[in-house]
Amino acid sequence: MNLPARATAVDVIRNSTGATLKVEGDLDLASAPLVMDRAIPIVDPGGGELTLDLTGVGFCDSSGISVLVKLRQLCDQRGWLLRTVNLQPAVWRIVVDFGGLGDYLNVG
């Protein structure tokens, strides 16, 4: 049974060390560009910490994994640390267990 896609929202919460991107909905082909569009203006050269909060993400496909890797690369290029937090069990299985990206994405 196919479940309907959930609309995705990306909230930006700035703090003294950088920012948090709080993603709600599916992390997939439709939402990956939105996540990047919200992250690029935040991650300016000079460094900081970007926390990607995936509390509200229940589904992640290969496009979602791709955007996570691109976010890490963007952070590396601009001197930022990327932390990925609050992965739900289904997303954990895809990103960490199957994808082996836990260390690379600083999953905590």
Q: Extract low-pLDDT stretches.
A: none
The CATH architecture comes to 2-Layer Sandwich
Q: Write down the overall geometry.
A: globular
Mean pLDDT: 92
User: How many individual β-strands?
Assistant: 4
Based on helices, strands and strand pairing, what is the structural class? alpha/beta
Number of helices: 3
Taking the alpha carbons of the first and last residues, their distance comes to: 31 Å
* Main sheet strand line-up: 1-2-3-4
Biggest β-sheet strands, sense, barrel = 4 strands, mixed
Question: What is the strand content?
Answer: 25-35%
Question: Considering the protein shown, what is the CATH homologous superfamily?
Answer: STAS domain
Give a verbal description of the structure.
There is one protein chain. The protein has three helices and four strands; from the N terminus they run ββαβαβα. The protein is of the alpha/beta class and 108 residues long. The longest helix is centred in the middle third of the chain and has 16 residues, at 62-77. α1 packs parallel to α2. The protein is globular, with a radius of gyration of 13 Å. The chain has a single domain, classed as Transcription Regulator spoIIAA (2-Layer Sandwich), CATH 3.30.750.
